[in-house]
Amino acid sequence: MAEPAIGIVGSGSWGTALAQVLARSGHEVVLWGRDGAAMARIARSRVNGRYLPGILLHPSIRFTADLLALDACRILLLAVPAQKLRETVWGIEHRGRVLVVCAKGLERTSHRRLSEVLAEECPDCTPAVLSGPSFASEVARGLPTALTVAAPAIALARELAEELGSSSFRLYPCDDLVGVEIAGALKNVVAIAAGIVMGRGYGENARAALITRGLAEITRLGMALGARRETLAGLSGMGDLVLTATSLTSRNTRFGFELGCGAPLDSLTGSGAPLCEGVWTARAACEMAAEKGVELPVSEAVARIVEGDWSVSEAVAALLSRPPAASE
After folding, report:
1. How many CA atoms lie less than 13 Å away from 224 in the CB half-sphere?
2. Among residues 84, 104, 187, 292, which one is catalytic?
3. Same domain, 171 and 192
4. What does the pLDDT look like over 47-99, one tens digit per residue?
5. How many angstroms separate the first and last alpha carbons of the chain?
6. Crossing angle, helix 204-224 and helix 277-291, to 10 degrees?
7. What is the mean pLDDT of the chain?
8. Residue 299 belongs to a domain
9. Between the chain's N and C termini, which has fewer beta carbons within 10 Å?
10. Is 134 a domain residue?
11. 106-158 pLDDT, tens digit each
């Protein structure tokens, strides 16, 4: 009997890339997207022209806009935006399934980590998280990538790493969900700040300092919430931060870069603008940190910028006026 297909919920760049890499390694894959007409076009052309133009998709991938088509899948990879996760899983049969969160962020309204959202909405599922340094286009093209897969039990994380991984898509098991999720969420906020530094022309020295201070913030908040230091220094922590905050391929870094170059905030956040999870995560992270008595000055500056309370110049001045402290 053939193995059950792996379902992927979300047909953006990351969901499509995951479908491609899994199909290439021999899995039967069902890729779900909301727009039936768009999914039909992708099925005909075998190209997701909006998100991964020029990449011919594997012939074994099935495309659907019907969530019922995922019912036979034992494992579902949830590649929808963080702020859409809760409403998306309402329509999914979750009993006895492993649901793997593939987005990075905190729920804006509740400050919940995404595995906590699953625990609330899908109490009969087993939650897991896939995170780490990865650009979708490189994954879809088969370039070497290493990520972390985290689950509540290390045995399950190992099973997922073996089942979903391949020679070019290496997965390292972990049972520190808190560390993996906090690192993945906050690196997007730090990436916005790094992009601002780039856009302002402050130089490589300043960007290196900003990234280092950002990693310190991720570490302070993560450990206050129970994460392990080695997780925050690993692939899903420092690794993902380095990738995201040093490349304009990152939507969050690009967002910050445009702000640093003087683009109006509303031109970057309006309808049709690229999704930047760091915009929604910044304030949620700061409020979560305040509850734990942890300071996040870089994240606070980003939150005030994206909320329109500070200009970029005011935020930079505030950060540069902070006295150096051994604890930061």
Report:
1. 18
2. 187
3. no
4. 999 999 999 999 999 999 999 999 989 999 999 999 999 999 998 988 889 99
5. 56
6. 50
7. 95
8. yes
9. N
10. yes
11. 999 999 999 999 999 999 999 999 999 999 999 999 999 999 999 999 999 99
Q: Which of 144, 175, 206 is the last residue before a domain boundary?
A: 175
Same structural domain, 256 and 163? no
Cα separation, 70 vs 68, in Å, equals: 5
Residue 326 domain flag: no
Single out the residue in 175, 197, 219 at which a domain terminates. 175
Examine the domain organization and report whether 163 and 183 are in the same domain: no
pTM: 0.95
**Among candidate residues 18, 19, 21, the one with its CA nearest the CA of residue 30:** 19
Distances, alpha carbon 9 to alpha carbons 55, 79, 315, in Å: 20, 6, 38
84 is catalytic: no
DSSP 106: B
What values do phi and psi take at 236, rounded to 5? -80, -10
Q: Which residue range is the domain that position 204 belongs to?
A: 178-320
Contact 178, 226 (CB under 8 A): yes
Q: Are residues 268 and 154 in the same domain?
A: no
Find, among 99, 153, 84, 167, the residue nearest to 130 by Cα.
Answer: 99
Residue 4 has pLDDT above 90, yes or no: no
DSSP code of 239?
Answer: I
**DSSP of 47-92:** --TTTSTT-PPPTTEEEES-GGGGTT-SEEEE-S-GGGHHHHHTTS
Sheet holding 126-131, edge to edge: 61-64, 29-32, 6-9, 75-78, 98-101, 126-131, 145-150, 169-174
Q: Convert the pLDDT of each residue in 272-309 to its tens digit.
A: 788 899 999 999 999 999 999 999 999 999 999 999 99
Q: Assess whether 82 and 187 both reside in one domain.
A: no
CA distance linking residue 4 with residue 27, whole number of Å: 9
